User: Fold this.
Amino acid sequence: MSSIILPELRYAETHEWALAQDDGLVTVGITDHAQQLLGDLVFVELPEIGRVVSAAEGCAVVESVKAASDVNCPLNGIIVEVNELLADNPELINQDPYGEGWIFKLKATSTLDELLDAAAYEAIAIADDEDEDEDEDSGSLTHPRLV
Amino acid sequence: MAKRTPLYARHLALGAKLVDFGGWDMPLNYGSQLMEHHQVRTAAGLFDVSHMTLVDFPDPIATRALLRTLLANDVARLHPGKALYTCLLNEAGGVIDDLIVYDRDAAGYRLVLNAATRDKDLAWIAPIAERFGAAWRERDDLAMLAVQGPEALAKLAAILDPATLAKVNASRRFHAVEADNLFIARTGYTGEDGVEIMPPAELAPMLWDQLLAAGVTPCGLGARDTLRLEAGMNLYGSDMDETTTPLVSGLGWTVAWQPSDREFIGRAALERQRTAGIPQMLVGLVLEERGVLRSHQTVYDGDREIGLTTSGAFSPTLNRGIALARVAADASDRCQVEVRGKRLAALTVKPPFVSHPR
Assistant:
């Protein structure tokens, strides 16, 4: 499974991306690798605007046909905007994870330098794929509630 | 090592996401579970269900007596070519498995059981079959393909000769046709029209290729699960198991109480439960707010905890969270389901969630 990793973004180990905008805000979403692992998304629980969040704190939830998964905030800061389109169109995250599928914007109080660059994140994504192959052999990827 | 169906190489070639299911390497999806689900509701989908356990009982007379003891539904209701859905119960009335039994006339009976329960099913059935002198053999030489959807029957022209196709078209739901080395049953697990075909394993890849060439969409176990849930069909191990009776699992309709002198295994326990009062019921839940329901979520009626969801999903057809839940028998038609610490409003409904005029 090959996924797109953009060089201009910074990443968290937990598969979120962050982009510093010209206006000083930071846009956050989940990576292409993450959306591929999750499968078709069917629901997104967005954070409240004004919420103060810390780095690595879960602040949104994406639910796919398979499972629910936390979206961690990669930085400390305050949520200032959320992608309302996701309420009716969660599939935007599958279709365009780095564009139309952004999840929230943050007024950050910590720096992006603490996050992974594209090369470091790619190493994590590749290791993840290899783990998944091993998991398939041992059967641990079994969806517990499947047919 | 996990078992593989005769179509394993096809799944790999199509880029399927594979998962372990009951000891089998099976396709979860071939890219998009949602797309596969919609194809079955609007056109036709193809499922490899060769992992299912097929058992033939060639002696019709000995087997009829056996099955009238073994099964909670009554094979006396069958006639040649007809199928019956039933539970296999233990003495306590708990469900060992659910299955479909086909009446094959002089050729006896065919049982289709779940894959994950194979070993315990056969271990349960074998000594009882021996007592009745009913020989049986597992048909692991057969594959099983399900073609499901409003266009399923039309697509069968790709694999059946005109005479066989005419017979299948003329057959009614829950009936089977045997022709051309194929067993073709008008059954399925999606709520749509369609067939389940049991060919010799070596024929399965060719049939698979021909059906795909005719435009049938390959579908994985993920779509199979959301389709069966929308259709209000139970999943063994989730919605019922050995600790629950059919009466608390929405399956009371599959228990044949008459004739009253038919002593099937589990009958006494079911009668005791019926007399004492059935404490719970399996209902459908439709989430009124945005969100997804999953299994094992707690169901409330105000402050009172009334039960647990047993299966849950996002319904692609309804665009809502849906679930089956086992709740107190006196539950009202409104409830709340706890999802990540929040109570979300849901309506109690009688499944199916999605049904089609036929």
Observations:
- Residues 10-134 of chain A form a domain with the OB fold (Dihydrolipoamide Acetyltransferase, E2P) fold (CATH 2.40.50.100).
- Residues 50 and 96 of chain A are 26 Å apart (CA to CA).
- Chain A touches chain B at residues 39-40, 42-43, 45, 61, 63, 65-66, 68, 87, 91, 136, 139-143, 145-147 (CB under 8 Å).
- Chain A has one domain: 10-134.
